[in-house]
């Protein structure tokens, strides 16, 4: 199988809320000093789905695509260490701050340049903007079927069998290839690289594509008017009590007084 | 500003969030012409209630097997016919899937997971949380139709205006041959769904292990509620991922939310702010959860929760 995985580099989403700052003048997030970017957690699930497909379909080729400005090569080479065959970094200042349709547009150009693919895997969303759109928009651009929120992806008899997470369980979906699948966290964690993989990845260099290779990004359709931090008022009433047990009892009495129990 | 609402129908009944979309439509403009695509099974039974909510035209879409691709095909036709400037749908299993695909098909853009809408002199300002709830973003969409998927329970259900009529138009669409739903597997759940529960007891990293959830379950059972968890217990396998509360899990809005041993990451807090009363139990007085809570207990949950449970049992005769 020819597999393409879209992997996004994002600011670390696990930083404490107190370290999160926004520059109101530019509507941009100010990266906290000393905190390195990470691979988006949902992208890691997509990569794991790709590796499992390769395990089950020997001879498959995985190409990992990442798009942005100032991409961290060493971070993204983790994909090579885990068994991806090629890492393509689409890195150009012209591709900073794209909206979802423009991101999908650039990705569509990149996929067309790659020519051959059976399946494109991406996270169900990215943990920074959390819009959940790129993969589905890309499917639209490529006129390929799309399945979102996958928790299992298998290929047999020339078809994909995908389990899609829905609120009360899951749907089993059969799709022709080529298709675009967005992967959910339920698929499981990304495996760890082994020493052999890490050493092999050290020798491998990513392929770089620039805007000149793919064409200018389409203009923004969605405009960011304002980025701001929500104000939360601290008006918490603390339940008194000399001991934790007494606090527990007083809490029960409070809930009764409020007619909540 | 004409508006097209996507109303999901199951066995002839409107999904609760569909009625909330009418409130959103009125927020955008009080005198918009509202058309609706009723999609699902038994859609004809829903026409009267849709008319009473304010729909002047109801497009009926009743596919045998509903794939998002098929839904996009139906809605694309209704969008062309209604010439709506705005298309509203719920951020549901279906809505989250079709908003981007519809945007692609119609050559426009979508904003998903929306929590607020404002009409600023004819310009629609669309708000959604980003960066795990650490920030809010206001967007505008420069192309039409503007496609917006709205989180459940952000808007109140619209009141019925009583005995209106609506024109009905049946839509036809061809099933795409390249994709199909083979089966739907419902995973058995005990009690109400967490998104709909009136009482939710949530456990966090502070529980220290899966055992603590047994106590939370006792408390929740006593209150007729359900148990959920923040992200760390789900990552650790202490509690199923399906019960994860937060912006990357389930958004809840119960009457009472009791957060036990939860420090209150932004992504968790953003998922619970719709709760009417939030009670936080945490021994760390500096924990972020106290900023979101109405009532707080700063103490060891291992001592607070059993005392609370016993006293509630006594008060309620449970």
What are the key terms here?
heterodimer; A: 261 residues; alpha/beta; Rossmann fold; 2 domains; nine-stranded mixed beta sheet; two-stranded antiparallel sheet; 8 helices; 29% helix; globular; B: 318 residues; eight-stranded mixed beta sheet; five-stranded parallel beta sheet; 17 strands; 29% strand; elongated; ETF_a/b_N (chain A); ETF_b (chain A); electron transfer activity (chain A); Rossmann-like_a/b/a_fold (chain A)
Give an overview in words.
The complex is a heterodimer of chains A (261) and B (318). Chain A is 29% helix and 30% strand. Chain A has 261 residues and is of the alpha/beta class. In chain A, helix 4 (100-114) packs across helix 5 (134-142). Chain A is globular, with a radius of gyration of 22 Å. The model of chain A has no long low-confidence stretch (mean pLDDT 94). Chain B folds into 2 domains: 3-170, 3-Layer(aba) Sandwich (Rossmann fold); 199-316, Rossmann fold. Chain B contains 9 helices and 17 strands. The longest helix of chain B is centred in the last third of the chain and has 16 residues, at 301-316. Chain B is elongated. Chains A and B meet through helix 4, helix 5, strand 9, strand 11 and strand 14 of A and helix 4, strand 6, strand 8, strand 9 and strand 12 of B. Strand 15 (237-238) of chain A pairs parallel with strand 17 of chain B. Chain B: This is Electron transfer flavoprotein subunit alpha.
In short:
Chain A has 261 residues and is an alpha/beta fold. Chain A has helices at residues 41-56, 73-76, 78-82, 100-114, 134-142, 195-203, 211-214, 244-257; strands at 2-6, 9-10, 21-23, 28-30, 38-39, 61-68, 86-91, 119-123, 146-156, 159-166, 169-176, 179-183, 207-209, 222-228, 237-238. In chain B, helix 5 (212-222) runs parallel beside helix 9.
